[in-house]
Amino acid sequence: MASKNVRQMWAAKLAGGGVGAKAGRAGGGLKGVPVGTVVPVSAVRAAAGPAAHPLAGAMRVSFSGQVLGVDPSLRGTGLALVEFLPGRAPVLLRCRTVTVHPKKSMAFALGEISTAVTAFLTDFAVRHVALEQTIYVQNFQTAQILGAARGAAIAAAAVHGHEEVWEYAPLRVKQAVVGAGRASKEQMARTVMALLGHGRMLASDEADAAGVALCHAFTWRG
Fold this sequence. Notes:
There is one protein chain. The protein is an alpha/beta fold. It contains 7 helices and 5 strands. The termini are close together.
């Protein structure tokens, strides 16, 4: 894994020095863009060529295969399947939010989460499953609910043969993807879109799930 974080790589690439260059202020075709600014893939390509990607030959090659990212929530679990292959940018294969009406029971919601995760694992050759950890909750009841949603996703993965599931704290996900642990959800969503070259704004839960998948691949040591 490269020593520079993603934000530094964006800056180095836009400065024209490639991913190994020292991070500074952006230059070249996008002169004047400060370090840390989220720049669309289209702008990067316009400045550095149609095949350019700020992570080429760096973080992406540390992992190969498909990662199912999960952002657990009882009423709105985010799921995002991202494929990583050497020599190309990560690709978002499928994403969805498992929306459950508030009037539906917890048992029903957990079943919906399990069914959705199982569908991803059945339809695709998923190599790893990664979840966002629940770090801070307002009260015990909330923790119990979030733990149940997390358990439904993990159980579905285990039944499908994924006996090991990786979990990442929100702070670590933001550091790996955005380069700043205190980044806002909007910053996170924009950076995920740029890294995936995605043309539309992802729903918040789906962007978080995709961020978990990116974090897993970027930090993978296997």
